[in-house]
Amino acid sequence: MRRLFPVTDMTAIDDAGRDTSGDREWSLDELADAYAYPGLGPDETWLRANMVSSLDGAGQHDGRSQPLSSDGDMRIFGMLRGLADVIVVGAQTVRQEGYRPARAREAFAARRAAAGQGPAPVIAVVSASLDLDFSAPLFTEPLVPTLVLTGAVAPADRMTEAMKAGAEVVIAGDGPGVEPARAVAALAERGLRRQLTEGGPRLLGQFVAAGVLDELCLTVSPTMTAGGAQRIAGGPSVEVPQRFAVASLLEEAGFLFTRYRRI
Fold this sequence. Notes:
Layout: E1 2-5, H1 28-34, E2 46-54, H2 71-83, E3 86-90, H3 91-97, H4 106-114, E4 122-126, H5 137-140, E5 147-150, H6 156-164, E6 168-171, H7 180-189, E7 194-197, H8 201-210, E8 215-221, E9 244-252, E10 255-262
Parallel strand pairs: 2-7, 2-8, 3-4, 3-7, 4-5, 5-6
Antiparallel strand pairs: 1-9, 8-10, 9-10
């Protein structure tokens, strides 16, 4: 893996203008330092998204993101989880990707303890219908209880099933669905201020449309899929396209690991 931006060591620039100082396997600590959350005040949150896209804009292949991924992408995926207080994910992604509880990793134990975090991030599932398998390990075997974010008029029987399974139901909307800004605030009220969403596209689109996404970590996969696969963000459009500025750019085996922050 090598860093293409920002360039800091001008002695390491090759003839093609590339920074070769990081052309090696980076440790998890180095990656964690490069992707560290910004310092947050007591009332601040930071919502970042982590997604992967093919060269022709597909956010998945055959309904899953794994075919677009790589070993480097999965290392960054795991590292971002290791930094987060909470992982916010849509119900459809939970079903398609077979989500399991986040696990405690020794490599992040000291870093998380120093930041006042628990041993593993909380998983927060966003669902209006609560059409979820509450007998799955995500709900029955988590290290920390899984949260279910839903609306005030979600099916009462499904709320009861979720709580029986050990999940905590969090109301983050007055209707059947979740209001993105209220979801961010509800998580922050529980001390979960370093937030990471892994999709799916509809959920990410809702965060974008609500103007609450602070950062996008996007892996550009050197693949072409054609077909009609969904983009990384769907749902409602914004009136004016939101601008983001590049914060960093890494490369490995043709994969680009980009990080953009909202301007």
